[in-house]
Amino acid sequence: MASLGSAVTSLKSSLSLLDSSISILDQGVSDFPRLCKVLQTQQHFELLAEPTLKEAQQSLVDEIVPAIHQLVSTAERHVHQLERKEASLQARSELLEGRLNNDRRNSSLGGNTLPFRSLKSTASSGTGLSDTKSLEMKRLQQKKERLQYAIDRLELQSKQRERELRKSMAFVGE
């Protein structure tokens, strides 16, 4: 039985050694979940390769630049329309101002132009112009005034078109 006693003591010492090993391992492993969390890498920023980044930037540029050019051309087109409208309004203002000045001059002369007054005075003085002739003269005088007005309007329109042409040529030259 002596051999059994030594086997039991050997088994008891092995058990105690195993218990101490388990307790040491348990102490070492008990902090394992915290260590996993601490050692776990967390990506706060995504790191990209430089070629990928440049490719993304170029795709953004390719997408945005045409839209910007379209917006700029639309804005320029509206500006040119407004400039043309302004020029036409200025030309119309000049035309109306010229007509107003012409009417003022005519009214200061007595409401009629000089040739018509002279014809009227000759008719009343007895040179023999009949009423139909005076009506014909009046109609011709009105026609002359309409034609003069049309000439003035066309001259102002031609000046306006010259200004627009100069502006467009200056814009092309830039």
TrEMBL record:
Coiled-coil ranges from the UniProt annotation: 72-99
GO terms, biological process: attachment of spindle microtubules to kinetochore
Region Disordered: start-end pairs: 100-138
Bias kind Polar residues: ranges: 119-132
GO CC terms of this entry: DASH complex; spindle microtubule
Database matches in InterPro entries: DASH_Spc19
A Pfam family recorded for this sequence: DASH_Spc19
Keyword Aminoacyl-tRNA synthetase: no
Similarity-based family: Belongs to the DASH complex SPC19 family.
Protein name per UniProt: DASH complex subunit SPC19
